[in-house]
Amino acid sequence: MLQKNKFPTVVLLLLLALLLLPALSCHRRNDSRLPGHLHLRLSTNPTTLDPALITDVQGGGIAAKIFNGLVRFNENLDVVPDIAGSWTLSRDARTYTFHLKKNVTFSNGRNVTAEDFRYSFERVLTPGTKAPLTWVVDKIQGARDFLAGKAARVSGIGVIDDHTLSLALEKPFGPFLSLLAMPTAYVVPKEDVERLGQDFGTHPVGTGPYVLAEWKHGQGLQLTARDDYFEGRPGLKGIYYRVIPEDLTAVIEFETGGIDVLLIPSAEYRRFITDPKWKDQIYGKPGLDSYYLGLNCTRPPFSDQRVRYAVNLAIDRERILSTVFEKRGVVAVGPVPPGLWRYGMGPKKSSGYRYDPVKAKMLIKEAGAEGVRVKIYSSAEPEVVDIMEVIYDYLRKAGLQPELRQLDWSAFKRAVDKGEPDAFWLSWWADYPDPENFLFPLFHAASVGPAGNRTRCLDPELDRLIEQAQRTVDERSRYSLYRKAEDRIIGNAPWVFMWHRSDYYVVQPSVEHFRIYPIYSIDKGMDLSLGSIEK
Asked: In three state form, how does the secondary structure of 165-176 look?
């Protein structure tokens, strides 16, 4: 009897708490929100906002709103003017001459000059800066000598006058302008960098539409819109980024109005797309990425092309994508995402590998690989583990003897970089929107190991095609070479080409003009606005 009397009391208390939760949540939301500010989530605290040191997408996305470069990407992934209003290329395709806009100022009030770009590029190449992505600007003539301490200046950087800059390359490089749109190539003011030293990364000064107003490490950071931005004032008063590591906490904060845009966690995807309240507020788009099962091409059984071919036939990628991955992507034909192809040169869907378990088993037997043990490494993320278990079953049925090994991320990357596994699960995301970014790092002999070619794919003819494409400035001709290179990769089968993932976002009704950008640096926070209630 005592337990029966206590049970309803507990239930009543729980019901009361649930009834009060919306009111409490609304009260917290109104107290914590900054008027006119878009509230977003960060899963981790950015390490730095110094463009020369940024390597992560989150940091790069914030930096894109604080800084500018000579050029940037538009939504169609074209290279368009940013601080450089126009540019020309010499006949030998080696020297770019940029003409800078004259109304661009740093947030400290000073006008930007060509000398600022010289300083910014040489700073990236200065060993003491410890910039991780020197390859963004090391194609400029004299950059490698400067980086090695053999020259006092980078000879290929020419300051013609305050608003004219020339960049001479060691040799033609077709995607060079795309590199200049990356955060590493953003312009910074020398006086503030030298005044702040290492603190510049937490007190950045740039030319962008926003300034950093506050950064509480581990909690959040606030950007405030500039009134004097050279392309006009943003539609927001500011942006507030909250650091919320746990997905469940982020979901609760979104549903109670604490954040405005949520990248839907995998575990919550099904619930959101079936919830009448949110299903019409969801946006998705295939990303510039490739998910793959990498095959070590330097030792048996995957040194035999027949076995690599067989594994591509043995796995029903469409079924895994539609079930385990809940249709959050498109099946891959090759390594280059469809969104990067131009001039109709992308591969036809029919040109990829189709599920054919009978032929797969026959090829494995023909190659003498039946019953061969293969070590397959992956990270220990639950979603990845689920996918690997399905792949395990397909490979076992095809005649191989797979062994799955899950490691924490750091140990996994070390093992893959050293070439320990026979096969491994990884993905590659675009640094810049050019197919070269999926070809040279992932399949050229010069990139074997940690640089990206972790399958140890070695093909001199493929290397020649990639190098020829790099030297080709005419875009249509370059893409024709990319097409030939990818066709050769598909034939070599160093990967099982799985899919290109789509990310899905759910957005509060008050957010206007939301869109998903294919490259994070496109979003400068100029397009979004909030409904009148939020303003």
From this structure: EEEEECCCCCCH
Say if CB 40 and CB 210 are below 8 A apart.
no
CA 451-130-420 angle, 5° bins: 25
3-state secondary structure of 400: coil
How is residue 473 annotated by DSSP? -
Residue, of 23 and 287, whose pLDDT is higher: 287
Query: In 3-state terms, what secondary structure has residue 456?
Result: coil
pLDDT of 7 > 50? The answer is no
3-state secondary structure 70-126: CEEECCCCCEEECCEEEEEECCCCCEEEEEECCCCECCCCCECCHHHHHHHHHHHHC
Bridge-based pairing state of the strands 401-407 and 157-161: unpaired
User: CA 169, 172, 177, 178 torsion: positive or negative?
Assistant: negative
Q: Under a CB-based contact definition with an 8 Å cutoff, are residues 388 and 376 in contact? A: yes
pLDDT tens-place string over residues 308-336: 999 999 999 999 999 999 999 999 999 99
User: Which residues neighbour 272 within 8 Å (Cβ) at sequence distance 6 or greater?
Assistant: 264, 278, 279, 282, 504, 506
State the DSSP string of 276-317.
Answer: TTTGGGEEEEE-SEEEEEEE-TTSTTTTSHHHHHHHHHHS-H
For residue 191, give the nearest of 113, 293, 268 by alpha carbon: 113
SS3 437: helix
Q: Among residues 151, 150, 129, 147, which one has the least CA distance to residue 138?
A: 147
Give the C-alpha separation, 164 to 218, whole Å: 41
CA dist., res. 284 & res. 14, Å (int): 37
**Cα–Cα distances in angstroms (integers) from residue 352 to residues 246, 313, 346, 349, in the given order:** 38, 10, 12, 6
Question: What are the pLDDT digits (tens) for 119-150?
Answer: 999 999 999 999 999 999 999 999 999 999 99
State the Cα–Cα distance between residues 179 and 115, nearest whole angstrom.
19
Per-residue CA distances from 90 to 94, 121, 155 (Å): 6, 21, 17
**Residue matched to tokens 């990628």:** 317
Q: Is residue 186 helix, strand or coil?
A: coil
